[in-house]
Amino acid sequence: MGDMRDNTTSAKAVLANFDSASAKQIMQRYASEAQAASDMFAGQGGAKEKDLSARFKQLAAMADATSQAPLNKASFRKAFAEVAGECKSCHSAYK
Fold first, then answer.
1. Considering the entire predicted model, what is its pTM?
2. pLDDT at position 2
3. Which secondary-structure segment (H or E) carries 65?
4. pLDDT tens by residue, 10-27
5. Count of Cβ atoms closer than 10 Å to residue 95 Cβ
6. pLDDT tens digit sequence for 36-57
7. Domain region containing 32
């Protein structure tokens, strides 16, 4: 999860000084990290683990779709807010 935190810091920097290529890389990293987390919880029997796997899978899909779309500062800001909201939903439920 530390990698996602670092990625969030990078995303905030990109919002301050927008660069489309960097924005795409950030979303690709979110997608990769979220998929890895989903895979880590997949196949575990508990309800919490199944929920976490599903949440991370959703986050991965959101970030992947954004990384494939043309990005400008406004669309990246909107997508980043949605991704950050999805991240926060886990923190709210499980911290």
1. 0.89
2. 64
3. helix 47-68
4. 999 999 999 999 999 999
5. 6
6. 999 999 988 899 999 999 999 9
7. 2-94
Name the residue among 61, 94, 24, 2 with its Cα closest to residue 11.
24
Q: 61 exposed, middle or buried (CB, 10 Å; 0-12, 13-18, 19+)?
A: middle
Could you tell me which residues come within 8 angstroms of residue 86 by beta carbon, excluding any fewer than 6 positions away? 55, 58, 59, 62
Residue keyed to tokens 């489309």 = 20
pLDDT tens profile 61-92: 999 999 999 999 999 999 999 999 998 888 88
User: Residue 76 corresponds to which tokens in the numbers above?
Assistant: 């990246």
DSSP 1: -
Total count of domains within the chain = 1
